[in-house]
């Protein structure tokens, strides 16, 4: 994938209510750069809803439609159809968290994907219900400590990318704010495609992950370089393409930098490494590249 020059215009304003060092806030800024001014965003309850601000105030320079947890993709589908009926060329994008995507909103998202609604759905995955106090979601990885899994989560993270790929939507991709050219480029690419598009953005959470407020981007890069969060695209549910070749550093470098994994034993870390390696080899087979 080519390197993109970041657009100069900003559509996310200062003065919003995010935590210092919030990767979601930076991710939203980059996504809005890729969307541009001819866009409307649909936001369910989440950290993003808090950042967007209470009506009539807004931290975004594009129209914002705040909806219920369960209805993000459904509301966006209606808006997209309305703009099409009016003959207006507007990108309708969903900006949601993992709780509103992997869990509460998955029924509406699956329905929209099955109908191939003309929406761009962006999930900011901070791997827990962070806006309500760091409870586990189905996006929380195995072993991660949350307020509802104080000994570490006992089940695996849901594979939302494979779920979306199984719908055979035109475009799905992973991204993270640690590589802004990759993220903005994928948003721009998705914006030019018709039908349901999905981008999953890893978004380290400062309080939830137990990291200093100047480390969220470092953690995002460690996730990519350790292959815990590979950057890739899936087109039509079949064509897998890596967009960055990771360094392949030990996953321990990523895990040990977070308090939510401080309780893990060396055996636990080795088990996670084995799972990361297994998933990486599976991805490599699908891309047809050499590991």
What does this entry look like structurally?
The chain contains 11 helices and 8 strands. With 291 residues, it is an alpha/beta fold. It is globular.
Overview in brief:
The chain is of the alpha/beta class.
Give the topology, please.
Layout: H1 23-35, E1 39-43, H2 47-52, E2 64-66, H3 72-86, E3 91-97, H4 99-103, H5 106-115, E4 120-125, H6 160-166, E5 171-175, H7 180-191, E6 197-202, H8 206-209, H9 216-225, E7 232-235, E8 239-242, H10 251-255, H11 266-287
Parallel strand pairs: 1-2, 1-3, 3-4, 4-6, 5-6
Antiparallel strand pairs: 5-7, 7-8
Helix pairs in contact: 1-7, 3-5
> What proportion strand?
5-15%
CATH class: Alpha Beta
Q: In terms of structural class, how would the helical and strand content be classed?
A: alpha/beta
Assigned CATH superfamily: Thiamin diphosphate (ThDP)-binding fold, Pyr/PP domains
Q: How does CATH name the architecture?
A: 3-Layer(aba) Sandwich
Largest sheet: 8 strands, mixed
Determine the fraction of residues in helical runs and give it as a percent range: 25-40%
The third-level CATH topology is: Rossmann fold
Instruction: Provide the domain count.
Output: 1
| Strand element count | 8
């Amino acid at each position: 994938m080519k390197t993109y020059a970041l657009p100069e215009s900003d559509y996310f304003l200062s003065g919003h209510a995010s935590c210092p060092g919030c990767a979601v806030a930076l991710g939203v800024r980059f996504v809005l750069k890729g969307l541009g001014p001819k866009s409307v965003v649909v936001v369910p309850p989440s950290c993003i809803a808090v950042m967007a601000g209470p009506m009539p105030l807004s931290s975004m320079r594009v129209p914002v439609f705040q909806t219920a947890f369960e209805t993000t993709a459904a509301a966006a589908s209606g808006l997209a159809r309305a703009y099409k009926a009016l003959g207006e060329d507007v990108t309708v994008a969903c900006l949601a968290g993992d709780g509103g995507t992997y869990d509460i909103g998955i029924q509406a998202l699956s329905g929209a994907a099955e109908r191939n609604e003309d929406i761009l759905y962006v999930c900011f995955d901070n791997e827990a219900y962070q806006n309500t106090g760091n409870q586990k979601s189905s996006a929380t990885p195995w072993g991660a400590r949350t307020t509802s899994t104080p000994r570490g989560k006992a089940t695996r993270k849901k594979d939302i990318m494979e779920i979306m790929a199984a719908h055979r939507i035109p475009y799905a991709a992973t991204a993270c704010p640690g590589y802004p050219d990759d993220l903005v480029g994928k948003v721009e690419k998705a914006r030019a495609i018709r039908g349901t598009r999905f981008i999953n953005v890893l978004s380290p959470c400062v309080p939830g992950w137990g990291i200093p407020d100047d480390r969220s981007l470092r953690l995002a890069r460690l996730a990519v370089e350790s292959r815990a969060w590979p950057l890739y695209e899936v087109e039509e549910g079949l064509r897998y393409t890596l967009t960055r070749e990771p360094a392949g550093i030990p996953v321990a470098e990523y895990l040990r930098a977070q308090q939510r994994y401080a309780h893990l034993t060396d055996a636990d870390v080795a088990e996670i490494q084995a799972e990361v390696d297994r998933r990486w080899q599976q991805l490599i087979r699908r891309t047809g590249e050499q590991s």
